[in-house]
């Protein structure tokens, strides 16, 4: 299939976009609106050029994405230890051979690499890797980045920024970043979930905190967040939490969340993003690819939304079994915004199920997807897939509405897609509207 990029809409004059669509016109109209609407990618692991080598791009990074590494060990006899001993190029070669030459790349993540190559008009066959490497080797990051975001139809990229990561910290302490399409997020895993291992880093930086987060600690941790808010201007604060997450309980996580992070979010008018359900390192031999999923207790989300009604929560849950509950809670609490089909859920069959369920329960009051891209060019395939999966789902919803007697117009479809692709997020974070 030919590569898509965000195309110019089949421009309609005001009156023709207000024209009532016939049933058979709905799907093509939805496809056209989706293809010509830019999205805010509200959670990625990408970095703006100011971060230099921290920002991953190019074919060897695409091939060694941890989603592909997990699949590699199912189709190769190499042990993880042998694999980690290889150079990045050798690892990419091994993955290419096992997943693209000796097998058909029909999984979601392998298919994604093919879609990226074809978006650039590059060969996708077994012998093409050399040419592909030459192409990426000849790119320089700024024009390449512009081109990638244009092809992907992404207007804004939201990063994940860890203030305790030494490499990132160095950039923020120097000049920070000012790329207009990239936006920061204050990611707090090491503080909210790794306090015993990380409190000393705050202490070294001059904040009066202690191991048990007692006394002045919570106020001092708030001072730390205020300093980083000033430095990063984040759109929201975020944490990823295990399936065992409970709130409230006696843990440091609960204490720091209620006494430090949520008050700080209120002070700065920021939403808090909770990504719940990861089971970190069930197989440490696979490193980043070694995480799994578990069903979470969604009463923690209920308790947070009810107790902190002045806070806004962006919530994504990793387990398929938790999706319906999340949508139901969003009906109970309008300070809860479900977002994305995260990680192991980002496959067409599951995205379809979750998105239909959300539309049926929430209309357009949710954020359907984020890319979670770690390697720049992944936004091309991830957003291509999202548009492709969303088109029939949205069209079906309008077909039902049409059959029930409503007037469907391009204007209305465009309004709804704008809300799903950017409006809900912009309103919650003040991006552009703030
Ligand atoms: O915690 C997260 O933000 C996760 O998305 C990642 O850590 C995870 O490794 C990932 O890349 C999932 O897509
Ligand atoms: Zn992520």
Itemize the secondary structure elements and their pairings.
Elements: H1 14-17, H2 26-35, E1 39-41, H3 59-63, H4 66-75, H5 80-84, H6 88-101, H7 108-119, H8 129-137, H9 141-152, E2 154-158, H10 166-174, E3 182-183, E4 186-187, H11 189-192, H12 195-204, H13 217-232, E5 237-242, H14 252-268, E6 272-279, E7 292-293, H15 299-307, E8 313-317, H16 323-332, E9 336-338, H17 348-362, H18 378-403, H19 410-429
Parallel strand pairs: 1-2, 2-3, 4-5, 5-6, 6-8, 8-9
Antiparallel strand pairs: 6-7
Helix pairs in contact: 2-18, 2-19, 4-6, 7-18, 9-18, 13-14, 16-17, 17-18
Residues 43, 45, 372 line the site of zinc ion.
Explained architecture:
The chain is an alpha/beta fold and 434 residues long. The chain has 19 helices and 9 strands. The strands form 2 sheets. Strands 4, 5, 6, 7, 8 and 9 form a 6-stranded mixed β-sheet that branches. Helix 16 (323-332) links the parallel strand 8 (313-317) and strand 9. The longest helix has 26 residues, at 378-403. The chain starts with 13 loop residues before the first helix and ends in a 5-residue tail after the last helix. The chain binds D-fructuronic acid (FIX) and zinc ion. Residues 160, 240, 275, 288, 343, 372, 374 line the site of D-fructuronic acid.
Q: Which percent range describes the beta-strand content? A: 5-15%
Rg measurement, Å: 22 Å
- Shape estimate: globular
Bound molecules: D-fructuronic acid, zinc ion
- End-to-end separation: 40 Å
Mean pLDDT: 96
Binned, the helix content reads 40-55%
The SSE order reads HHEHHHHHHHEHEEHHHEHEEHEHEHHH
Q: Largest sheet, described in full?
A: 6 strands, mixed
**Total beta-strand segments:** 9
Give me the secondary-structure category. Answer: alpha/beta
Q: Which stretches of 5+ consecutive residues score pLDDT under 50? A: none
- Output the number of helix runs: 19
């Amino acid at each position: 299939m030919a590569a898509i990029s965000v195309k110019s809409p089949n421009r309609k004059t005001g009156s023709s976009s207000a024209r009532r669509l016939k049933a058979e016109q709905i799907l093509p109209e939805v496809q056209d609106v989706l293809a010509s609407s830019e999205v805010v990618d509200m959670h990625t692991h990408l970095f703006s050029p100011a971060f230099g080598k921290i920002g991953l791009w190019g074919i060897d990074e695409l091939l060694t994405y941890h989603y592909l590494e997990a699949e590699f060990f199912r189709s190769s006899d190499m042990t993880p230890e042998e694999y980690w001993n290889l150079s990045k190029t050798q690892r990419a070669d091994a993955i290419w051979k096992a997943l693209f030459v000796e097998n058909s790349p029909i999984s979601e993540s392998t298919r994604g690499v093919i879609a990226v190559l074809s978006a650039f008009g590059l060969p996708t066959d077994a012998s093409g890797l050399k040419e592909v490497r030459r192409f990426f080797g000849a790119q320089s990051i700024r024009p390449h980045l512009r081109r990638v975001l244009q092809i992907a139809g992404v207007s804004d990229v939201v990063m994940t920024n860890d203030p305790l990561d030494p490499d990132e910290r160095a950039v923020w302490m120097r000049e920070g970043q000012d790329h207009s399409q990239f936006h920061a997020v204050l990611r707090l895993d090491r503080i909210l979930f790794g306090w015993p291992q990380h409190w000393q880093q705050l202490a070294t930086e001059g904040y009066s905190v202690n191991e048990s987060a007692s006394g002045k600690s919570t106020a001092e941790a708030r001072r730390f967040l205020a300093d980083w808010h000033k430095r990063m201007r984040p759109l929201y604060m975020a944490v990823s939490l295990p399936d065992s997450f409970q709130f409230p309980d006696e843990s440091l996580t609960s204490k720091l969340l209620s006494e430090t992070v949520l008050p700080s979010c209120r002070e700065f008018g920021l939403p808090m993003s909770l990504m719940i359900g990861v089971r970190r390192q069930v197989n440490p031999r696979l490193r980043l690819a070694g995480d799994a999923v578990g069903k979470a207790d969604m009463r923690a989300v209920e308790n947070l939304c009810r107790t902190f009604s002045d806070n806004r929560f962006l919530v994504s849950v990793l387990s398929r079994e938790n999706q319906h509950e999340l949508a139901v809670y969003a009906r109970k609490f309008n300070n809860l915004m479900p977002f994305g089909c995260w990680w192991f859920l980002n496959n067409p069959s599951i995205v379809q199920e979750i998105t239909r369920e959300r539309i049926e329960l929430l209309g357009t009051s949710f954020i359907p997807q984020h890319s979670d891209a770690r390697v720049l060019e992944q936004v091309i395939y991830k957003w291509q897939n999202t548009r492709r999966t969303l088109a029939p789902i949205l069209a079906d919803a309008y077909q039902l509405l049409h059959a029930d007697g409503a007037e469907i117009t391009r204007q209305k479809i465009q309004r709804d897609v704008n809300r799903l692709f950017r409006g809900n997020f912009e309103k919650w974070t003040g991006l552009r509207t703030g």
